[in-house]
Design brief:
By secondary structure, the chain is an alpha/beta fold. The protein folds into 2 domains: 9-188 and 228-253, Rossmann fold, CATH 3.40.50; 191-226, no CATH class. The protein has helices spanning 18-29, 41-55, 69-83, 106-134, 155-175, 193-206, 210-219, 229-240; strands at residues 9-12, 33-38, 59-63, 88-91, 137-142, 180-187, 251-254. The chain has a 7-stranded parallel beta sheet with strand order 3-2-1-4-5-6-7, sandwiched between helices. Helix 5 links the parallel strand 5 (137-142) and strand 6 (180-187). The protein starts with 8 loop residues before the first strand and ends in a 9-residue tail after the last strand. The structure holds NADP nicotinamide-adenine-dinucleotide phosphate (NAP).
């Protein structure tokens, strides 16, 4: 299937590793121009170079914090300067800490809102006007399976990501007539540093080995295994493509069947 991504300009946020990196690699392999960001300069540059080497595409990178509106604005301006426009914007950030409700401070709640909701708002505010003018755009946010079925111990994620679902659904309504689609992709257990961190925390809390936790995670998934970042990235590439023009306002779970709901 030709996804029609050749020559499209794509931003992938928080993409020095994990799911963001896999998405950037997949879009570059499909022929898109790529811009990535993350906070740690050395990691971000290294990933940009690795994607350039594996795909032959030039990758623009910047070290920014997506919780800072001015950083996001400057990054998008740099992408527009280099590539002329932004066609596809995949918003992403790290995950909030795993804690019980009474252990979480007010500052941690605010930080989670900044990290996972406001970062998506900041990108949407700066990329949508250009997409609207050109009558074509794809805005995709990486959320979590927790938007469909809350995950125990992840109350910050369960709460804040629900707000992004509302944001995306409403933007889809507002910008649909402009040829722009707005969707979210919800990962299930996928092998990245974030999952390693969660497994380590759960193992310490339960007094069992990390291997035991990974076994339990796998057993809870109908596919009976943890997902690979490239499996997640394939779904995002499809949503970003020409082929997905009539897929709008939805959340696609890439979770091996973990969410048990009918829809
Ligand atoms: P990861 O492997 O920990 O990677 C996170 C990436 O985000 C890194 O490149 C990190 O680089 C960057 N980042 C973090 N905070 C940032 C900030 N404030 N500004 C800019 N970049 C930032 O995580 P992942 O597994 O890819 O997860 C991506 C998202 O999916 C997270 O929100 C996670 O909670 C969610 N998720 C993951 C899974 C899973 O199983 N992997 C399941 C459900 C949901 P720097 O640290 O250098 O900034």
């Amino acid at each position: 299937m030709d996804l029609g991504l050749k020559g499209r300009v794509a931003i992938v946020a928080a993409a020095s590793k994990g799911l963001g990196r896999a998405v950037a690699e997949e879009l570059a392999r499909e022929g898109a121009e790529i811009a990535i960001c993350a906070r740690t300069p050395a990691d971000t540059e290294k990933t940009a170079k690795a994607i350039e080497a594996s795909t032959g595409r030039a990758v623009l990178w910047q070290a920014i914090d997506v919780t800072r509106a001015e950083d996001v604005q400057a990054f998008v301006a740099a992408v527009e300067k280099q590539f002329g426009r932004v066609d596809i914007c995949v918003t992403n950030a790290g995950g909030p800490p795993s804690k019980k409700f009474l252990e979480i401070s007010i500052e941690e709640w605010r930080a989670a809102v900044d990290l996972n909701l406001m970062s998506a708002v900041f990108f949407a505010r700066v990329v949508l006007p250009g997409m609207q003018q050109r009558k074509w755009g794809r805005l995709i946010t990486i959320t979590s399976m927790s938007v469909k079925q809350p995950v125990d111990g992840l109350i910050l994620s369960n709460s804040v990501r629900a707000a992004i679902t509302g944001l995306a659904r409403t933007l889809a309504n507002e910008f649909g007539a402009d040829g722009i689609t707005v969707n979210n992709v919800a990962p299930g257990y996928t092998l990245t540093d974030r999952l390693e961190e969660l497994a380590t925390k759960r193992a310490a809390d339960a007094g069992v080995s990390r291997e035991k936790i990974f076994e339990q995670m796998s057993a809870s998934v109908p596919a009976r295994r943890i997902g690979r970042p490239e499996e997640f990235a394939a779904a995002v590439a499809f949503l970003a493509s020409e082929r997905a023009g009539y897929l709008n306002g939805t959340t696609i779970a890439v979770d091996g069947g973990w969410v048990r709901s009918l829809l």
